[in-house]
Design goal:
Chain lengths: 248, 248
DNA sequence: CGTTACGTTGACTCCCGTCAAGATCCGTGG
DNA sequence: CCACGGATCTTGACGGGAGTCAACGTAACG
């Protein structure tokens, strides 16, 4: 269940694991103090809805731990995922009354929340936050456009390998491990969620995973634990330019 | 050809047709003066490339008149359009050395340009520009995500009707005409560009246009002049929720 | 006119979606 | 401990929507 947690369970901003990447990254001591005054933490279990499209946007905030997804549902039920939110990512749009899409936890997630109104006031008063928000929005825009290429032009196999490479790289970077040779990771989402992300059906996702396994590009233990023996070979199937330039 | 035009051919910022919508919309007189000092105009003919992916980003700027497109090309030549730039839209990302995608004029276009470095300095010094840029980026992000739904989940027919409805509404709003009954407009792009935008081949675009014509949802004179006898009927084919809420 | 770019149409193919049946995993309770 | 049920995942058979390849129309322009 949702719970509003006392501040003391969590580290102070100075010790926060997302301190150097989140919306507060470029805040000075004073700005951080003012943010700290209005922040509060909330947790959501996997599968719990965090915000509903069309609802009033009561709070905004950062993902501290866990993972969530943004998605939109068409009237006939088709679902398209629009974003994957991992630690340090920001939820909500200051300056907008209503939520633009559904937000749902796909793993147990902890958020560092700010009520929207006080946060908006703070953004206007402290340029550092606005500037950081601008940079993060521009990053999100680049991610969204990269994803548009995938959705509009890539084959099912390319889509799957892109997603696997994305998760693999992100996991490796979180663990500060080298991007080479065999790397293993836990897929943070179900086959269905993968399909929602990639614009595919669950059956196609499953078939492509099987095909990649048979081709030796991935190994699986259970359905979530993936091993990539050779990342370069996998990335050769993404349809992207894999020359060193575009590694994030 | 590209030409760098003397300032005098163009209106001063105070008289500019995009004054109230572009990145300068919320600038005060002093800020506007500083922008005016570093601005210059450039024009590009239809089909001319404005920026190339990977090139150094020499300038940023606003579309004053005409239309341009953002796109990315995969190594094997597949093209996905990522954005349609119309008057008041901003080109370029401050804080980034290189251009992230190709920018090409699809009609004769006039830009109000700023060299990137001085503009970045100005953004840091004048909060109004940064704030405006943030709002515009968030708008772009919403458009991109809306487009992700289209690319990932919609059928060819839905894609086409979405695009037609988009252009129709935008044209009507520019002309300040009511959004009802029969409305006519000029398609600002070729069938090929439509396909690049929608993640379709040119043949599929053409076939769907023919189908819509045979179904009486659109009329055509030549291939670019479109008449929509009843916008509501067309929008019923977009797959979207057409309850009054989501009209922009 | 001829040339060239752009658009339309047809025949055919194939990738991915749909429908359906199993398989696997896992928590619960008898 | 095993049976049961539900959720998740896999696999198969089949069909359709959109891509591919190719030919033909049409418009613009010298």
């Amino acid at each position: 269940m949702t719970r509003i947690t006392s501040r003391s369970e969590f580290p102070s901003c100075a010790d926060c694991n997302i301190r150097h990447r989140a919306v507060c990254a470029t805040c000075d001591t004073d700005e951080l103090r003012r943010l700290e005054e209005i922040k509060y933490y909330r947790s959501f279990d996997a599968g719990q809805q965090i915000m509903f499209e069309g609802d009033e946007m009561v709070f905004v905030g950062s993902v501290v731990t866990g993972a969530a997804k943004l998605s939109r549902t068409l009237p006939d039920g088709r679902i398209q995922m629009l974003g994957l939110l991992l630690p340090s990512d920001f939820i909500g749009r200051p300056g907008r009354e209503q939520v633009g899409y559904d937000v749902e936890a796909i793993q147990k997630v902890t958020l560092c929340c700010f009520r929207r109104k006080p946060f908006e006031t703070l953004v206007e008063a402290t340029p550092h936050i606005g500037q950081r928000l601008l940079m993060m929005s521009l990053d999100e825009l680049e991610v969204a456009r990269e994803w548009m290429v995938l959705l509009g032009r890539k084959t099912a196999r390319e889509k799957i390998t892109c997603l696997l490479a994305l998760i693999a790289r992100r996991t490796a970077s979180l663990q500060l491990r080298p991007l080479k040779d065999s790397l293993s990771f836990e897929m943070p989402m179900s086959r269905e969620t993968m399909g929602e992300y990639l614009g595919l059906t669950i059956e196609t996702v499953s078939r492509q995973m099987t095909a990649l396994r048979k081709d030796g590009l991935i190994k699986m233990e259970g359905s979530r634990t993936i091993t990539i023996p050779d990342l370069a070979s996998l990335m050769a199937e993404t349809g992207d330019d894999t020359s060193a330039a575009r590694l994030s």
